[in-house]
């Protein structure tokens, strides 16, 4: 598709208003990846995302046709609002379902989101390697990563407790993260290669 | 919001770690919804963060285990004496009092294998225990506002209750309970609640 987002959004809105199915396809093509990430970020249940995404698109098309979006340049914000309503509806529903499950205790089956044994084994192997990578880091770099990414400490707290200036913290964190990414992608490709090696019978 | 700003201010990472102020998060969301480049950046960054968190979690766990086993001999002796005293007290103290012991005192009572369940994060797998064997559940409650009491319930995948205990003391960081009879093999949910409100839920796998 050509043109700037503004032109594209303008065209999509016009097509949808006119009842042209190409508008719906273009809307989906332009926004589905972003909306999927947005819903996944807030819902954190991959199995729920596709249904919510579908509902959000249906509602958006109906609302655009109904003239609820006056300025096409607000299309992204408009879609975000509709998707956000899907998220709040999901949360309400989850809370309601949870209390229902507790009331009935046993009458309903909770589906297990657990990974397969093979995936568990791969995850375990990969985690071991990731730990080894971290183990090889200088103690201060490792401490920064653990505090920032795992213990969820703020940059300010880490600087205070480890006696670092904000610049030192930023540089060290960026460098450590970069090193982790480099070494992890090397290790990960090894794991993938081992995984792909055919078994001889 | 433009790409230069996003890059310079580490917006993607801060967004994924939920450290962006709500208005900035909303601006960024409205930007990336229609931006293929940022969507790709988010996917990559999410994977990187997941990997780092997984490594950090594993490394922290190892460090804690190592710290215990490398205690100097007098400290080990003291720990053993405390454990023996705790076992004696747990036998001699009425049940009601036992239930309300602080997590630390409760955990010193018996040298059980610990199954640690951490708050759900992407990529993290369910905790594992051995069927029929006693174990200690250590639950990560990181992020709760204050210490207090909670109820812990272990339910089967089918939803039926397998084990529960109320009046369990917790800190803002964690709580521990001992399942002295263990559990049959299968998949379980471990729920921590307080005053009827669910605080945390974890997955637990019990292997034969």
Biggest sheet of chain B, strands in spatial order? 2-8-7-4-5
User: Could you tell me the strand content of chain A as a percent range?
Assistant: under 5%
Contiguous low-pLDDT stretches of chain A (5 residues minimum) are 106-112, 195-201
Number of helices of chain A: 8
Q: Which structural class do you get from the secondary structure elements of chain B?
A: alpha/beta
**Would you identify the regions of chain B where 5 or more consecutive residues have pLDDT less than 50?**
90-110
Treating each run of at least 4 consecutive H or I residues as one helix, how many helices of chain B? 7
Helical content class of chain A: over 70%
SSE order of chain B, one letter for each helix or strand = HHHHHHHEEEEEEEE
Structural class of chain A: mainly alpha
Please count the beta strands of chain B (DSSP E, at least 2 residues each).
8
Q: Indicate the proportion of strand residues of chain B.
A: 25-35%
Distance between the termini of chain B: 54 Å
- Shape summary of chain A: elongated
Secondary structure: helix percent of chain B: 40-55%
Oligomer classification: heterodimer
Assign an overall shape of chain B: elongated
Mean pLDDT of chain B: 76
Radius of gyration of chain A: 24 Å
């Amino acid at each position: 598709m050509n043109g700037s987002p503004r032109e594209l959004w303008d065209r999509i809105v016009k097509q949808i208003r006119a009842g042209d199915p190409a508008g719906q396809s273009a809307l989906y093509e332009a926004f589905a990846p972003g909306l999927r990430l947005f819903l996944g970020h807030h819902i954190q249940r991959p199995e729920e995302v596709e249904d919510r995404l579908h509902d959000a698109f249906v509602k958006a098309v109906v609302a655009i046709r109904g003239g609820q979006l006056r300025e096409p340049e607000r299309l992204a914000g408009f879609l975000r609002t509709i998707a956000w309503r899907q998220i709040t509806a999901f949360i309400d529903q989850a809370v309601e379902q949870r209390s229902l499950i507790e009331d009935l205790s046993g009458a309903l089956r909770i589906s297990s989101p657990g990974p397969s044994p093979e995936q568990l084994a791969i995850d375990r192997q990969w985690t071991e390697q990731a730990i080894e990578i971290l183990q090889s880091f200088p103690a201060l770099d490792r401490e920064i990563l653990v505090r920032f990414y795992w213990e969820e400490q703020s940059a300010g707290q880490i600087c205070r407790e480890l006696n670092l200036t904000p610049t030192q913290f930023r540089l060290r964190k960026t460098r450590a993260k970069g090193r982790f990414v480099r070494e992890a992608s090397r290790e990960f490709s090894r794991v993938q290669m081992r995984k792909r090696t055919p078994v001889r019978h | 919001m433009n790409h230069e700003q996003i890059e310079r201010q580490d917006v993607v990472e801060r967004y994924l770690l939920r450290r962006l102020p709500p208005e900035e998060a909303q601006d960024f969301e409205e930007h990336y919804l229609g931006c293929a480049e940022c969507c790709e950046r988010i996917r990559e960054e999410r994977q990187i963060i997941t990997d780092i968190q997984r490594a950090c979690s594993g490394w922290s766990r190892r460090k804690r285990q190592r710290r215990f086993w490398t205690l100097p001999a007098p400290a080990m002796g003291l720990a053993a004496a405390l454990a023996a005293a705790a076992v004696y007290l747990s036998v001699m103290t009425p049940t009601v009092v036992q239930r309300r012991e602080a997590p630390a005192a409760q955990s010193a009572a018996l040298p059980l294998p610990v199954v640690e369940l951490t708050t759900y994060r992407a990529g993290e797998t369910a905790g594992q225990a051995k069927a029929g064997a006693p174990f200690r559940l250590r639950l990560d409650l990181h992020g709760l506002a204050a210490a207090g009491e909670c109820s812990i319930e272990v339910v089967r995948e089918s939803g039926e209750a397998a084990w529960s205990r109320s009046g369990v003391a917790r800190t803002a960081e964690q709580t521990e309970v001992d399942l002295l009879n263990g559990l049959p093999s299968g998949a379980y949910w471990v729920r921590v609640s307080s005053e009827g409100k669910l605080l945390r839920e974890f997955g637990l796998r019990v292997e034969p």
